Amino acid sequence: MSLRIEGISKTYANGVKALQNLSLNIGNNMFGLLGPNGAGKSTLMRTIATLQEPDQGAIWLDDINVLQNKDAVRRTLGYLPQEFGVYPKMSAVDMLNHLAVMKGITNAGERKDQVEALLRQTNLWDVRKKALSGYSGGMKQRFGIAQALLGKPRLIIVDEPTAGLDPAERNRFLNLLSSIGRDTVVILSTHIVGDVKELCPRMAIIAGGRVLLEGAPNEALSAIEGRIYCKQVNSQEEMAEVEQNFDMISTHMAGGAHQVRVYAETAPGEGFVQEPGDLEDVYFLNLKRHQTAKA
Ligand SMILES: Nc1ncnc2c1ncn2[C@@H]1O[C@H](COP(=O)(O)OP(=O)(O)OP(=O)(O)O)[C@@H](O)[C@H]1O
């Protein structure tokens, strides 16, 4: 299965250009859509999920014209939106049953089997009779995935699912996502680089409604290999000097001291130590280039 996004643009009534002629090719397996707040991720996710119209462009799911055959897409879509809405006093098992009927799983036996399998897969079996309103953040997100997987969708969209989860729950959630079949298109929208690093064989970085980079994380890392340098700086003046003279990517605190990371084609000089590149470097570098180009 493949999803082709061709030249999608969206300008909101207030003039914000959320998507600007954006094109992407997304195949089976997990695709990471990485971008800062306001990049246009949710707008794109809602558009693919047929909940919102773009001003221009086309989307194809294999040979289905998504914008013109919304019902066909909805039948094969699983969607976990950024805001999943109010969690009712209903139990997980009752709510899943209800949603399964809404999704057209009318055969009672099949529905029971699917609901049970999903509750087990998302590790919610033991709490299936508890009211959803009493679930923790991580449990709610796992329930969100369970409902998205109802009806065995071939296109799954999850919008910023790990924001606000503690490390153990985030881990559990990412493991769950990685267990989704490889013959499914899964789009994971996130501003957390680690989510993409851990799960996605392909990714895109978007900002300002445009694609800044598309490809495999490994290829992106190869492109910066041997060009990342780190240095400890001990004063604001030193930091300003590095910022002025080098292509600074980011600053981190390590052991109470500031470490700066820079991108350099050749060794930048005294005090700098070469470091292996990280996907965060790729991300920050692309965002920086985007900001500079805009200025
Ligand atoms: N309904 C709307 N009306 C007007 N502007 C909007 C609307 N929805 C989103 N925007 C604006 O469009 C831009 C893209 O927003 P979007 O929510 O798609 O980005 P995002 O990458 O998902 O960001 P976030 O992580 O903050 O949700 C932002 O500037 C946002 O303020």
TrEMBL record:
It comes from the Bacteria. SUPFAM superfamilies: P-loop containing nucleoside triphosphate hydrolases. The keyword Cell division does not apply. Residues 3-233 form the ABC transporter domain. One of its GO terms (molecular function) is ATP binding. CDD domains: ABC_drug_resistance_like. Pfam families: ABC_tran. Keywords: ATP-binding, Nucleotide-binding, Transport. PROSITE patterns: ABC_TRANSPORTER_1, ABC_TRANSPORTER_2. Belongs to the ABC transporter superfamily. This is ABC transporter ATP-binding protein.
